């Protein structure tokens, strides 16, 4: 096993961790970094390389689950986060409940079951990802412009079931590769008059369970492609994605209320140009 191959696994894990929950499309970055540069299929094989990407995505998902663990505990009334009981009465419950998360998961869950194989076979190409990157950037710019006119934006604990469903519907739209799950759902939340931080919080809390289910299912389906000699790659990639996922999510949640979505949208458009130049050989 070559040192540089392990280094490639580390780099891919870092890229996944930094981009999975930022509204910049982890798929677009994987195309640029892996398909056009590191080429993990050359040392893992195509099936094992796909499984490797599932594993490192799980690293990012576990990072998000860890960041929001207290909020999940609150919604599930676990341990010290359960509502206090005083004089035989419960304290005022939080508005955001686990049922809001479940309602938001419905559209993507149904469409994922119906169209996952089709999307995987027919939409994972550079041209389709470029389209998703660009259209997602435009959507983010529209949402940012809309937010300037919103007074008294909705907080995450004030979300209702209709808003949760609409945001979940936009998560289903993000099944188009390159569109970005977080980019589309945060933008939709902002268009539903939520502030950027609250839209981000709900986006991440909603994404974790459905991504765990989707990645877990993919891992089970492809478990036979994991070879013993590849285990070190998987471990390094997973840990890198988890650690850098923690850093990325915390940094993003700190920045989003200050800088909004526009800088990320501009970055996406630049990424479209870079990928197009490399892929189509415009500059040789």
From TrEMBL:
Its EC number is 3.6.1.27. It is a multi-pass membrane protein. GO terms for biological process: cell wall organization; peptidoglycan biosynthetic process; regulation of cell shape; response to antibiotic. It is found in: Cell membrane. Catalyzes the dephosphorylation of undecaprenyl diphosphate (UPP). Confers resistance to bacitracin. It catalyses: di-trans,octa-cis-undecaprenyl diphosphate + H2O = di-trans,octa-cis-undecaprenyl phosphate + phosphate + H(+). One of its GO terms (cellular component) is plasma membrane. One of its GO terms (molecular function) is undecaprenyl-diphosphatase activity. Its main location: membrane. Belongs to the UppP family. This is Undecaprenyl-diphosphatase. InterPro entries: UppP. Bacitracin is thought to be involved in the inhibition of peptidoglycan synthesis by sequestering undecaprenyl diphosphate, thereby reducing the pool of lipid carrier available. The keyword Cell membrane applies. It comes from Staphylococcus chromogenes. Coiled coil: none annotated. Pfam families: BacA. The chain crosses the membrane at residues 50-68, 98-116, 122-142, 202-219, 231-253, 265-283. Keywords: Antibiotic resistance, Cell membrane, Cell shape, Cell wall biogenesis/degradation, Hydrolase, Membrane, Peptidoglycan synthesis, Transmembrane, Transmembrane helix. It is an enzyme of class 3 (hydrolase). The keyword Secreted does not apply.
């Amino acid at each position: 096993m070559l040192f540089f191959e392990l280094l490639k696994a580390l780099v891919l894990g870092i890229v996944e961790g930094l981009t999975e929950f930022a509204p910049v499309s982890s798929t677009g970055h994987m195309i640029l970094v892996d398909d056009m540069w590191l080429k993990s299929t050359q040392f893992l094989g195509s099936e094992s390389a796909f499984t490797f990407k599932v594993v490192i995505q799980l690293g990012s998902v576990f990072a998000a689950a860890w960041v929001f663990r207290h909020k999940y505990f609150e919604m599930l009334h676990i341990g010290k986060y359960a509502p206090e009981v005083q004089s035989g009465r419960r304290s005022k419950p939080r508005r955001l409940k686990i049922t809001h998360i479940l309602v938001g998961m419905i559209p993507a869950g149904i469409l994922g079951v119906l169209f996952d194989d089709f999307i995987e076979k027919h939409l994972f190409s550079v041209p389709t990802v470029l389209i998703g990157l660009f259209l997602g950037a435009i959507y983010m710019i529209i949402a940012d412009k809309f937010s300037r006119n919103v007074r008294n934006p909705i907080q995450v604990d004030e979300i209702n079931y209709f808003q949760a469903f609409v945001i979940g519907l936009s998560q289903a739209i993000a099944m188009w590769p390159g569109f970005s799950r977080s980019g589309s759902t945060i933008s939709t939340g902002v268009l539903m008059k939520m502030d950027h931080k609250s839209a981000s919080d709900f986006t991440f809390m909603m994404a974790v369970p459905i991504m765990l289910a989707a990645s877990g299912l993919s891992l089970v389906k492809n478990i036979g492609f994991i070879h013993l000699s590849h285990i070190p790659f998987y471990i390094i990639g997973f840990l890198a994605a988890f650690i850098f996922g923690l850093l990325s999510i915390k940094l993003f949640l700190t920045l989003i209320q200050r800088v909004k979505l526009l800088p990320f949208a501009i970055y996406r458009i630049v990424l479209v140009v870079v990928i197009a130049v490399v892929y189509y050989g415009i500059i040789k």
